[in-house]
Every structure is written in structure tokens, then in C-alpha cells.
Amino acid sequence: MDVLTSLSDQVDKSSLECLNEDSLHRVTNTLTPGIDSYLQSSPGESEQLLVKYKFLNPVKIHSMIVKSLPDGVASGTAPKTLRLFINCEDLDFQDAESDPCTQELTLERAHVEAGEKVLLRYVRFQNVNSLAVYVGRFKNQSFELAENYGNECTKIAHIGLYGTTATSSKVSNTIT
Questions:
Q1: Is residue 172 in some structural domain?
Q2: DSSP letter (8 states) at residue 150
Q3: Model's pTM, two decimal places?
Q4: pLDDT at 149 over 80
Q5: Is 42 within a domain?
Q6: Which top-level group of life is the source organism from (predicted)?
Q7: Residue whose C-alpha is closest to residue 81's, from 121, 134, 43, 25
């Protein structure tokens, strides 16, 4: 079994982006845990966020942490439901709202308050070159769901991705 580690060193930080982030509270603040800095959706716009990661090498993602600010659930700013998309680098809000995702996660209060790891469907995250994490509104069946705990603004203190690098196995075609 592969040893699971933080994938933060595999994130291409020069291409890390987040749509609808507040200019004072950027996505880069979520790379290391802490309460002094955080990611926030643009005030007055919407609670939507679309975080886009590109990796230096293909990775296998096993689990993730999404940690809110200490009062995130009580204030309604903590993310509640995430839609994850792999290898969809051109994803925008419209696509994230309506396209089928790789996995949808509903974060329990304990997950976001304590920053507990949430297991992903590992078989779906085997050869990941990019990952998009969507928090916002999307149509599920015939109704619209809010994707945080009720506030018009979303705040995230830390996003951690855990797994391994995807190793390619080369088959030798040597004839003896």
C-alpha cells in the first residue's frame, strides 16, 4: 500500500486559481493551516467559489480536509457541500453547477470545524492532473441547493489534499 502524504508539494502554485475570491482573502491562504488567513468569496457577489488546482505530476487523491474558521458553521460561512471535478481545467461556474461531477461531498459540522479528513472514492481519483473544487449553488434534481451553512459569503481556512503521486509502470518489450 502506498503511503499517504499531503499533496501540497505537488500543487503547481503558479497556476493555482479561485474564481470569485476576495482580493484580500486569496486561495493561497488555504495551503497552510492557520486562522490568521483564509479564503473568502467576494463580498456582495455570492457564496460561490471555484478553486482550481493543477499538479506538477499526476496524483492519486485519497482524502481531503476542508477546515472552516472557528465560527464558520455558527456564522453560516463554512462550506457544506462540495462538488469535485478531475481533469477539467476549463471548468466555469455554469459547468460546475450543471455538469456531472467526479464526487459530491456533504461536509458534516465536525468535518469543517475540526478539519477532519474526508475520504474520497479513491478509484475515481487515480490519475489526476487537475482538480476543481466547487462551492456554490447548483441544481440538484428540481431544486436549488445552497452550498454553505447559509451565509452569502463563504470562508475557508484550509484545504488539504492527501494521497500519492501516480507512478507509471513501464512494460519492457525486450526480446532475448
A1: no
A2: S
A3: 0.86
A4: no
A5: yes
A6: Eukaryota
A7: 134
